[in-house]
Every structure is written in structure tokens, then in C-alpha cells.
Specification:
heterodimer, A: 492 residues, alpha/beta, globular, B: 434 residues, 2 domains, 20 strands, 21% helix
Amino acid sequence: MPAVLETVEQVRCIDVDQYKYGFVTDIESEKAPKGLSEDTVRFISAKKSEPEWMLAWRLEAYKRWLTMREPTWARVDYPKIDYQNAYYYSAPKKKALASLDEVDPEILKTYEKLGIPLREQEILAGVVRPEGERRVAVDAVFDSVSVATTFKEELKKAGVIFMPMSEAIREHPDLVKKYLGSVVPTSDNFFATLNSAVFSDGSFVYVPEGVRCPMELSTYFRINEANTGQFERTLIIADKGAYVSYLEGCTAPMRDENQLHAAVVELVALDDAEIKYSTVQNWYPGDADGKGGIFNFVTKRGDCRGVRSKISWTQVETGSAITWKYPSCILRGDNSRGEFYSIAISNGHQQVDSGTKMLHLGKNTTSRIISKGIAAGKSNNTYRGLVSAHRKAKGARNFTNCDSLLIGHECGAHTVPYIEAKNSSATFEHEATTSKISEDMLFYCRQRGMSAEEATALVVNGFVKDVLQQLPMEFAVEAQKLISISLEGSVG
Amino acid sequence: MNADVRAMKTPAEQALSAAFAAARGALPGKGAVGTLREDAFRRFDASGLPHRRIEEWKYTDLRALMREAKPLAEPAKTKGVVQGLSGVEASRVAIVNGRYEPDWSDFNAGDPGITLTELFAFAAEQTSYRLGDVPGKDDTAFWLNTAFMTGGVVVRVKKGVCVEKPVQLAHIFASAAAAAMYPRCVVIVEAGARLTLIESFDGPDGIDYQVNSAIELVIGEGALVDHIKIGRDGDAALRVSTLGVTVDAKANYRDFAFTTGGAVVRNQTFVRFGREGTEATISGATLIKNRQHVDNTLVIEHAAGGCTSRERFRSVLDDESHGIFQGKIVVEPHAQKTDAKMASHALLLSDEAESDNKPELEIFADDVQCGHGATAGALDNTLKFYLMSRGIPEDQAEALLIQAFVGEAIEDVAHEGVREALLQASVKWLDARA
């Protein structure tokens, strides 16, 4: 059945031409020389005053990258990226910030405009905070550097380490050495290897044994400079029995040329630990004719290393000209659990190729994938996912549901699931129809006098809300603004 | 690491090149057919055997599975018999070692509504049909078949004719030594005609012969075609079968692939719905054990609107067997009101068995109903318990459940006799297991 009018209207409202975050902050910045070479890598490493081992790590990645080729398997089509025609490092001028007051007011204004609270004092004083709202610690990454991290002191009291990656390399080299690259090795894939060589900043989180992180942690990424790629690297470690919820947001100015964003996120959950990672991705998607926009090539992977550990990915993807992103879980520990909830909306000329991988290695591991794709305009929206059970993953269970909705006849929606079972006790279920999951719910609604369409709309709406509810409250509001879309007329 | 990187030629690829160089002058069919062969081989030579980096062949890596290329099979020396389907009376067309053998066949030539011509005789005498111009023509295995095709038949059912007796295209390997055969058949069912087409593959156990077969099936407007493919190859055989189907308006097409034999089997089916209003069911059942490897790959192109297709596959995997299902439904722009549903279920009877499922959807039209479902798992213990609590021994309870599981797929076969024969074959497979 075709989409209802209301849905069509709502998707139009998030049209690419109405990108709200497209402004540019006028600020002086310091850049690495254009292009990519060993010198660029050395330059970045020196800028960050990194120890020798880190530089060696980067150089090794760079050498490997030179031998690799850009992957072509995804259903995305884009002009060849000229890796020499971009800046790999750009930082606002002014260094050694002692307090937030020293941050360039222009940058503060930028974040204010984006609605990101950096003024810790005000928040603490409760000036701008409505009653009952939870506090969020923010790490603000502006182009290649982290400009501010809030609530550091309070987190320190709880034992939680939350700081820019560049600081962590200096202050906690042992932790970084132990975990960096242990989930996404430098040789993982073309974009991850590039990131390993040139990553500039990102967030580092360590939650010690038994600690429940007292507040949500968040990083807000902003690309400002033209012709600059952003390569951040995030590493989150939840030690035994720890819990942390982490949010990530991103925006960029409207520009005619494409900009590259190639991030790597690594999560490590030890015994009984839980990590919840939420993203609202709203990079500039390009204009209505498909000009400009961010190329988003991201490698995100979580490792449920300990028994009974849990990693949950939630993503709301509305931005970027190209999205190439597969947040995955390696379910190594027995009884560990992986979750992936995704809503991907594409419009204009956007191309989304996103999904997840659930690799069941331990016994009795479970995973759940809920993916909703909505394609409008001339966009293409692909779900690509792998669920596999290793020979020794006895009792592995997976449930996958991926639905997509097409609005208009010029867009495309595609599903490419790979389901690989290597032992008989694995139970995998994969479905891509809305009616199938909710036969009894539909029946219940019909029984109470609703039409079939109304009933479907109600059930499916409830379902999307379920995904949205996986987001922490602060983000749920933002995401809900982006999508309050009914999904009837779904196709697999 | 990328697909376009051409690795060194494997021994099998080298052997194929050598075989083509040696045989090109002697292979049947001159003129246009010769050009077709040369062109196909050139394309094959440029790409090599498909391997796991080629997405469509991800799970059936021929470069690894086909260690050597066997020499072309010689024509059979002695007359043999065609194994039919028990209880099914059919017109039998024997294609032995890749060549049509009239002596082995039992084809009713008395019916004026249906004609049978040898492939190259057909190619020489007519020009309206373009050999090889079918969906799937860009597949590597199909190129290889075109390059080496040694024979086959063309079956033509005339407009409005209802062929009562099923036609069986029996592919038989009959040699004492391992060899390779490349049969190619064309089946044209004209507007409003009806045909039940059985395709069978037989060969001796213990000989690692190779089969690369292809069928071009053209279904006219309003025609009704049932195609049943039975894979009973010998236990060491390697077979790749390509089926390219074009379907006209308001036709009814049912396809069923039943596979129990062979060491490595790949059934690849390419269907294109070119005009509106067609209904199709493409299904299959696979029962395998030991180290068998069976791959069912489909590409269904909805190029016109208003067509309905159902794809249903079931596989039972025992021991260390490996079952693969790859199904791709493509709905082209403007193919509105398409209704396509695909389901694939795998039953794993052993911890060493492996099931890989890839049900793909590629949709470019908005007013469509498409979906897919896929499951993989072991037998339901509660069902087994139910049966056992009623006094049925464990092995029988298991057999009953498996039979029910496969039976659901076999029910898609419309021809009663064939359906019965397939059910019997699955019971036989289960008995052998016990």
C-alpha cells in the first residue's frame, strides 16, 4: 500500500534544502599542509605531542594503507576521492586551554547555535536547565581537535575517565596501548586504516570496574573548515560490571564540494559490562541536486569480550551524501548480547548503505537487529547486514527485522542480509514484512473496530517508537523531531 | 582484495584455456555459433573462474572447488537407458555426455503441437531466435557453457497447444572416466500453450565428472509452464546449471528444483518478467548429507508491473553438508503493483552442517509489496517430544518432522505424479539416513 499523505509531508519537512546547521564559523585555523604523506602523519603526531610508539603505530597503518584499495562492494556511487586534495588536520588557533573561558567565543557561539551545552557553570547553576533534566558531559570536537570537555571533575570523582583521545594517549598510555586497535585493527579496512594513520582526536572513555557512569557522555562533532577531512577515533572501555551510555552528534556547514569523514569507534565490554552507544548523524547531506555533502565512511565495532556483557547500538541517520557504516558486535563472551536499532532516512540524492554485523562466537549469545529505512526523493537506501554463528556458538539466537519504506518512484530501497549458521543449535530468524511480526496485534486492533490500515499504522508506529526509545532522552527529543513518521506501506 | 584484481590462473583455468584452444575447430556449430563461442570464451578468459570475491559466487568458490578441469566427454559408445520418475509417464529426451542421443530417447514425434530439433540443426536453419540472449547471460558459468556447448535440443510447443505428457530432458553422464559435459537446451512455449518440463541429472557415483548445463526457457503470453529440475548426480560430481527464463504477459510459471545428489551443485536461475500480469512460483527442496555442497541462486527481475512471484526454498542439511540460498528480487522503476515474497528455511540436523542465506531485495518502485523471511535452526524439540510421548521412536519422529518440513515445499509441484515421486524420493533419502 502507498504511504499516507502525512508521512510524505513529514519527510518533506526534513528535506535537504532545509538543513539547519549549514552555517560556517569564521575562525582562524591552523592546518597541516594539503595532501597525505608520511610527513602529514608525522605532523599530526607532533602536533599532538605523541609518544614514539604512537607515531610508529600510525606510520605502520599509513604504509599498509598505501597497499590497499578503496572498497567497491557497497551500493554507493560517488566521484573518485582525491586523497591528496584535502587537509588532514585543522585546528582552531589558540592552544593550552585552562578553562572554558579561554575557548574562542566564536566556537562557543557555534555550539550554542547547535544547541550543545558547553557552559558547564551555567548548567551547574541551573540557569538554563529545566527541572528534572539529566546532565550530560560533552566533549566538543571541532574539525581535528577537541575544544572542550565538560564535567571532567565530577566524572573523575566517580573514577570515570572521559577526555579527548590525544590527552588520553599522553595521560593513560597503558590503557590506550592495551585497547586501541584491539577491536578494529589497523589493517581492518581501507577507511579504518586511513583513520589509524591520520586520526586527530575523538573521545576516550574508561569506566572502571563496578562503576555506573553517573551521567550520559556525549561527543559533538563539527566539521567547519573547507576541504578538510575529519578523522576521529573513539575508544570506550567498560570494565567488569560497568555501565556507560554514550551519545554522538554531528553536523557540518553547507559546501559545494564533498568532504570526507572517516571515523573509527571501538567499544570494549568486559564481564557483565554494558555499553549503550547512540548516534544522531546529521552531517550536511548535499543540496537538492546532489551537490556537496559529507562522505561518511565509518567503522564502528563493539567487542563483547566478557561473559554476560552487552553492547547496544542505536542510530538515527538523516545526514551525509554517502553513508557507509556498519556498527557491529563481536559476541565473544558467553551469554553476551548485541543490539542494533537503526532508523535511516534518505532524501534528495543521498545514498545510504548501512547495517550491522552480529558475529556470534560465544555460547548462548543473543542479538537483535531492528532496522527501518525510509527513502524519498532520488535517494537509495540499503540495509546490509551479516549474522553469523561460529561452530562453537552453541545456542546462538538472532532476531532480525528490517523494513523499508519508499516515498516517490525515483528512489530505491534495498536489503542485503547475510545469514550464516554453522551449527545446528543456532536459531536465526529474519523477516522483512511488517504484518508478519504483528499478526496478533493487528487482530487485536481490528477486533476493536479499526480498519486494517489504521491498525497497521498503529502497530508499526509503536514499533518505530520502540527504536526511538532506545535513545537516551536528550537525543530522543531531537530524533523525534526528525522523524515522527508512520511506516505503513512498508516493503522489506 | 578487490574483485578486479586478476590472480594467477589456476590449473583448472589453464586447462580450460588449453581445452578451448584444442577443441575450438572441432566443436559443432559454425558461423554465428562460432562467433558466440569465441566471444563467450574471451569473456570467461578475462574473468576466470568465479571466486568468493565475486559477490554472486560468494559461497560457491569455484576457483577452490573446481581444482581441475576435466576433458570434454566423448559421445557414449553403448546404448543405455533413461531413468525416469517412478509412476510418471513422460516423453524422454536423452542428452548423454552433453549430446542429444535419439537412440536413447523415447520422444513422441506424432504430436504436431510439439517439435524437437537438435540444437545445432536448429541454430543452422533459423535466424529469428538469438541463442544465448537470456537473463543470466552475463554470468561466468554461462559463458563457459556457451564456449564449450557440445549439443542439446530445442523443444518448441506451438501456440495454444496443451502438451499432456510431461517432457523429460534427461542429462546423463555415461563414461567410465571423469570428463566434462556442456549441454545446452532451448525450450520455447508459445502463447497460450502448456507444458510440464522435467529436467533430470543422473550419473554414476564415485566418478568426479563435471557438468555445466544451461537451459533457455521462453514463455509466451498466457502460457503455463511447470519446470521441475531433479538433481540426482553421482556423489562425486560437480554440476553448475544455469536457467535463463523470459516470461511474457499473463503467463503462469512454476519452477521447482529438487536436489539430493552431487558433491558440488549450483542451480542458478535467472527470471525476467517482461510484461504485466504474470504469476510465478519458484521453489525448491534440498536434502543433503556428508560433505555435499548445494547452492540455489536466484535473480528475479520484475521489469513490468502487476506480476506476482513467490520464492520458497527449504533445505535439510545433515553431517558436514553446506546449503546455500541466495535470492535476489529486483523491482525495476515503474514495475508498480509488484507482489514478491521470498522465504528460505534451513533445517540443520548436525552441528557440522552449515547454512548460508542471502535473501536480497532491490526495489525501485514505491507501490509494491515485497518481503522476505529466512530462518535457520535445528528440529523443534517440543514437536519431537510430542511425537515421542505418543509412542513414536525418536528416529521415526525425526523422520516424520523432516518429511513434513520438506513436504511443505514439494506441495508447490502441480503435477501429481511428479509430486508423488518427489515425496517418495525424500522418504528414500530419510530411510538411507536412518
